[in-house]
Amino acid sequence: MTRSLDDAPRGQTPLRTHDQDNGTTLQPQRGLTPFPPAMTCSLNDVRTLDDLRSYVHRRLCEKENLLPDQFRMTEMQLTRRGRECGLQFSLQGPRSVRLGAIWAADHNLLYFYDAQGVRYAKERLKLRLLPECQARRAA
After folding, report:
1. Where in the sequence is the domain holding 63, given as residue range(s)?
2. Distance CA 89, CA 102 (A)
3. What's the burial of 37, exposed, middle or buried (CB within 10 Å: 0-12/13-18/19+)?
4. CA nearest 90: which of 72, 108, 104?
5. Which percentage of the chain shows pLDDT scores above 90?
6. For residue 36, is it within any domain?
7. What is the pTM of this model?
8. Is 60 exposed, middle or buried (0-12, 13-18, 19+ CB in 10 A)?
């Protein structure tokens, strides 16, 4: 069910929730980026870097039971000897909760880290993805 703008307390903009029945969309609060609508469900569905971002965001949110549309994920390129070799993902949750993941492009592996910095999962991607700079050169 979707809340209307009239339901919000004075001076606040509500976050509209998605209703499957009538197809409403999310209206993000200030400072939040809405989560992409096409969420990658499994590791086998990861075929592009956007799929990878979606998958990692969902997995990190699941770890701490966070709502994906409420928390943004940032990423940073990792380089080795001047060449891009992967991506580091960070998700800042409520309070001091910070989750992370690293995609090692050369080994095609994803490493997931919890709020204490302890690795809790290691997954191999089924399909090899190219880092963005290499994908641009190949196109």
Report:
1. 43-138
2. 6
3. exposed
4. 72
5. 45
6. no
7. 0.66
8. buried
